[in-house]
Amino acid sequence: MFTIILNLLIVSLLIICLSGCYITGPDGDTFFIETDKPSYAPDEMLTVTFTNRSGYRYLLINSGCDALENKPLPDLHYERKDNDEWVDAGGPVCPEVLRPPVELHPSRTYSVTFTAYVSAMEFVPGTYRLRFYFSDRDGTPLPPEDQRFSNEFRIE
Fold this sequence. Notes:
By secondary structure, this protein is mainly beta. The protein has one helix and 13 strands; from the N terminus they run αβββββββββββββ.
């Protein structure tokens, strides 16, 4: 009898978790964006990884540029920390036509590698983060506003 009750309890917990429990990332987020290192030289390669544990599919907009391995470079902007405020530091300028968005499926990761500083604006050493842009076409949900940024990193 005890074994039956224990099995029912385990199955109930699994059903509850499958419907609403997600492994979380930094700060409890279920969708997060991280760079592979805390600092870079401007011409060094940077890898950014999108981890989606949210249960939703997100659409990451492409810039029209190519990154390494023929992957599209996501539409991004650099933000530089200036006196404890984030200021726009530009982004890539790509002459190509925009491509379809990258689908970031639940329970998956997506990584892309590119030169650490690909902005059209003049480089200034400092602390940066990357802001990414997402599409809500066809009613696709957007990640929460505070989860559309990478972690902070240095470019020196």
